[in-house]
Amino acid sequence: TVNISATLIYPDSSALSTTMSIDKLLPALLECFGIILCGYIAGRANIITPTQAKGLGNFVSKFALPALLFKNMVLLDFANVIWPFLWSILIAKVSVFFLVCILTLIVASPDSRFSKAGLFSIFATQSNDFALGYPIVEALYQSTYPEYLQYIYLVAPVSLMILNPIGFAFCEVQKWKNQGNHQQSKLLIVGLVILQVLKNPIVFMVVIGIIAHFLLHQRIPVFMAEFVNGLANSFGGTALFYLGLTMVGQLRRLTRSTVVTLILLTTAKLLLMPLICKDMVDLLDNSNTSALNHSSLSNYAFLYGVFPTAPSVAIYAVYYNAELEVVTSGMVISTFLSAPIMYVSAWLLTIRWMDADLLMNSLQNVSFNISIVSLVALVWTIGVMFLSKKFKRLPHMFAVNLFLAQSLTCIGMILWKFVIREDNFIGQVLTFTLLCTSLYSTYVWPGLIALSLVVLRRFEDVKVSPGLFVIAGWGFPALVTAMLLITGEKMSDTIDSSFFYGKNQVMFLSCFVLPPSGQCENSCESSDCLLVQVEELQQVTDRQVARHVLLCLLLTVSSLANLSSCLWLIFNPVPGRLYLELQFFCAVANYGQGLVSFALFGLDKHFIILPFKRRLYRLWFGKQQEQPQVDQPEEVRMTCTQFTKYHKDQCTHDIVKKRRCGKRTMVNCFLGCELVEWLQQVGLAQDRGEAVLYGMRLQQGGILQHIKQEYDFQDTNVHFSGLLLCHCMTDTALLEPLKWLIAFPPKEKKGRYG
Fold this sequence. Notes:
This protein is mainly alpha-helical. Helices cover 68% and strands 2% of the residues. Strands 1-2-4-3 form a four-stranded antiparallel beta sheet. It starts with a helix and ends in an 11-residue tail after the last helix. The chain crosses the membrane at residues 25-43, 81-105, 148-166, 187-216, 222-245, 257-277, 297-319, 331-354, 366-387, 399-419, 425-456, 468-486, 549-570, 582-603. It holds the Pfam family DEP. It is found in: Membrane.
């Protein structure tokens, strides 16, 4: 057994008191991520378009944040600064920066080696200190160590003024190499990097603020104090809202080739960085005579290291046109993974003393509670997969097996809560068998899903046998569980299912390798519209590759945590307090997998969201009535008038096509995505978000409509009509190709149907 209680009590634990206010952390997290969610909803619903969001981003980065930095640099109290803490963070950031940089230079392909090294190193070290970090630090330490808040403003320039320029230099070198003729000299590259750093308003205002600190004697003049405060105070909510806006559509960029890179970068940012920060403070902060202050500063360093990547890294990727998929997807993932890590870390670090029985009961309760919530989410998700008939096709068939394994894991954990308290050996063994087999199966299925995606992508002519995958997904975990029951020795003094069969169970768990990675008018009146059947076919045949890849990625991070836990326990008989945090994280990751599955597959757009939206609209507004043009909003009338007068004929010529919709009828229609692309090409919209808004105004004004009047305008392969009347045809020969398409659907959606 592992003597956890002996290793989780600090020296002189009776003298320790709570050094942070944990009660305010959860409200702070809800505030921050609630505002982020509002920004995401605003962007997702096209209330604010990407072009409009750029203006908000410019305000945040060029006005609000520089004012905030200037204010705090002037007011900074250097007398209370513990300088070993700053040197510790500096060394930790530099270590992670060059570790990521060197590894990238070694393994990356030569054609993009330097740009990857520069951007990946910045990604792993530049934290979202101000928008997300400061509110959390304020909630934790405002009432106990208020001087800790100023460290945020001292640490941030480490990345902005020291490490980022090095990363920019690598990116400039890559641009120089890609030119081929090497017109720019190396001296010019250095000059460009220095100029770019000095032009950054954030860096500029930090320098000006430090100078003003000494000239103004830590006081902002009265005549400019209100002006600076107004800009500085506008930063918090605006920056979080903008962060939500920047997350819209970023996961669509996720591809199979970026999975391994994202795993490594996320691990470096959320696991390696906080550990090194904490260790460096423990080593360098020798001047602190108080053990309480020393441990508090060390814990603060760990929490600081968990702060997610700043959104500005995505701006750098856009500027250099490099690794945008990795940076944007990683920013989203690291932001949402950091929340539970910060909360659990802060909660554990506030406990004065730790009794082993109390901790095991707490771990058991966390696992039990999250299993109930996750089971409800999984029942919903599995129901959606069956009712939408996606379970019949790959890779959704394997995803359903994963969801089933996750459900059985939750059921096993719920049963374990009760059987472990009773002296029923057979019940314990049966429940343990169900729990372990299903839990181990959740480690195997992500790898099988990733393998199936590779096979379906590269070998389209090869028929994948689901039976072999199902046997592997369930048979291998069952075999491992059987071997554990035969060779293991039951531990009678533990209630934790992870150690029920002692160290052999830990060894078996560590052996699972991670996953690889008549007349129709403006609409179709046919009762059996073939175009609608094609739309439904697209929904069913869509493999949702990006969602499956993201599912595998998130579960791989969970597997990494479990592997780290096993290796930590195998090689460390005295694991310590951080190991306990890792155990809580593993419990949440193991039994909360259903929440991830629900988020990715439970809210099916075509089966859940759009039908719910249509029913809600009809319930609220009643049967949609065609309104006179004069009753429409001014913006809608102007858009429709402009389009009808100047652009309708050209648009009709470019994108409207005759498509078969019934046995004897054809309809002149177009795809939503076609109109979106056309609007951008002719300059009526600057981006796809604005194009969708333009199309929605045309639909509201009666210029276009869905062929069955079931969908609002959207940027998808959904058919719309209205620009021309459709015509009848009696030639049934043209019907055959479309019938053949529906009868024999393609293996993968490669383009447009019709």
